[in-house]
Recover the amino acids of this structure.
């Protein structure tokens, strides 16, 4: 399974978008719902820092990185420590605030969701790609002579074995619930169509 992470960024009024407009001061954290543009958004978070490095005080940690709730192969002791740190971080989640309300401890959580059928088809493409090593068994089991038969096989497989055959098939609400540790937190949800690639 891929890691489950919560990347976060501190937007400041002296930071510019590629269009030249300035950002409002804001702290954002993102729930990475797989197959919903998450990797592109993580890259955009990093690009913000690179694009604005010359204008920023070097002591500021604008792209602060990410909290990881789960990572395959991580030691139990390290996993427990990062789980606890992430839990503390999540306690700072809040709704949209005025620009002077943001500090080092609070942030607004966002998530992107996608039409479930489009996401399912994208997940099939992901796990059957040659780059996706852990999907080899799924590929051997379900890749057929045409797309229709391949999709039908994956539908049957998920029905029979459950969506945990691979994280990319997990319902989006399950990923959001896990990434928020089941806490009652505000999360701003945006449609996939709003993410320009």
């Amino acid at each position: 399974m891929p890691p489950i992470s919560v990347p976060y960024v501190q937007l400041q009024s002296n930071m510019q978008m590629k269009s030249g407009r300035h950002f409002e001061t804001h702290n954002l954290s993102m729930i990475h719902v797989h197959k919903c543009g998450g990797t592109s958004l993580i890259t955009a978070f990093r690009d913000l820092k690179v694009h604005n490095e010359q204008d920023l005080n070097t002591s500021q940690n604008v792209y602060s990185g990410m909290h990881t709730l789960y990572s395959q192969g991580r030691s139990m002791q390290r996993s427990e420590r990062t789980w606890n740190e992430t839990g503390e971080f999540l306690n700072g989640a809040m709704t949209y605030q005025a620009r002077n309300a943001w500090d080092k401890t609070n942030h607004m959580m966002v998530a992107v969701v996608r039409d479930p059928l489009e996401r399912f088809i994208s997940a099939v493409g992901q796990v059957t790609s040659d780059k996706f090593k852990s999907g080899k068994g799924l590929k051997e089991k379900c890749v057929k002579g045409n797309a229709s038969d391949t999709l039908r096989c994956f539908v049957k497989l998920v029905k029979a074995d459950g969506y945990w055959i691979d994280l990319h098939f997990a319902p989006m609400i399950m990923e959001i619930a896990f990434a928020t540790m089941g806490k009652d937190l505000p999360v701003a949800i945006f449609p996939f169509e709003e993410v320009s690639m």
About this structure: Strands lie at 4-11, 26-31, 63-70, 108-113, 187-191. The chain has six helices and five strands. The radius of gyration is 19 Å. Confidence is low (pLDDT under 50) at residues 58-63.
